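A quick aside before the break. I want you to see a complete sequence-to-structure record at least once, exactly as it would be stored in a machine-readable document. Don't worry about memorizing anything.
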Amino acid sequence: MKRALTVLLVLVIALSCAFAGDYKFLFTELDQHTEILAGFLPTLTTMGVGYEGLNLMDGNLTQLQATLGGGYTQRALFQDPLTGQPLNNDIMLYDTIQVRWNLKFLQGFGDSWVEGLDLVTTYAGYEGRYEKAVDSMVLGQQRLRGYANALGTQTGVTAIPSLDNWFMTHGTSAAASSIYPDLDDDYAAFSTIFYLGAKLNYMEDLMVSNEGLTAEVKLQFAPGFVNSNASYYSLTFNAVAGTTLFELHDKRDLNTVSLVIIDRFNANWTDGSKVPTYAQMPVSLGRKVRGFNTSSYNTNFTLVNNLDLRFAGPEFLIDGIFPRLNVFLDMGFHGGNYFNTNLSAKDMAEAKNLSRFLCSTGVQLEMCFFDFIDLGFQVSYLISGDNMRNPGSRFITGATFFLDF
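That is the input. The structure line, written in tokens, reads:
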């Protein structure tokens, strides 16, 4: 057995060396748990390899990707597990253990004005994932989670309950609740998601400067006949435009200072009989408008615009490592029904005194490391709408880990 494993290892190394020029290392995702070092430590990552040896069209990218990863992160539930109504003072915090694997095919077409990029890149793929929900790592500790008076003074704190107790206090159980379908099987679920899309590549992104635009349309679907805990589809359109207003370089051609304006427009429609929590997170309006809460304002339809004015500081010694100050203005609107219910956003806004229009402004002070980690601190002021984890508060602070766009 040992000899067979040794031979296999040698063959893998030999093949890797033989085709090394056709392979590319991929670092595709990074996330954090907000209770671990205040969110400044990565607790989830995915990485893998891309193979470019097929070369189906001369001069255009053809790539097969395989990635694997996982980790430990925090989630929050903002809907009543029995009725599906939005909550703003009895949310549930819990943790998840995750494993993800992904297979993806990409094909480029045409030539962009940016050297080395295809004009349009199409892709299709499959994602598998396993998730296990567990009680919060700070179960039972007290913290501000709702109830602040008009002066912003704390008037009550609650201890984080267990998942079982939270469902029970709302008159149901995870197995009986249709609001959170991926939590009904002992808080664990396997999922299979398919996706396809196309992206227009018309932006030169040098990290400290941007010029041009990108536009992408993506369809994701998790059919019920292959999933016991998920049955949904999600259609997203995302466009980003940017231009450099000013830049100054030193003698080594490293950035001294630059000023860039970036604008993103995002529209999404997600629907289905079983929309799991992992699918709700990235499309929720609270996720996209800074200063609000991921998974809050989680309805079928969201429309968002994010505007950034970015001041990039000097690349002291290495190209791609620099400080940056972002001044932002975010606006968003949500409509349709709350996930896994027939409760409309309009009716719930009136019943719960919630705004359907969210708006925030603020600043982010970050240290940027190449093109995948922006680590820093954010201060947001909520112009319209409520932060559901801390109702009544207008100034929201927190760690930033990477740019959404």
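Two observations worth writing down. The mean pLDDT is 88. The longest strand covers residues 92-111. We'll return to this after the break.
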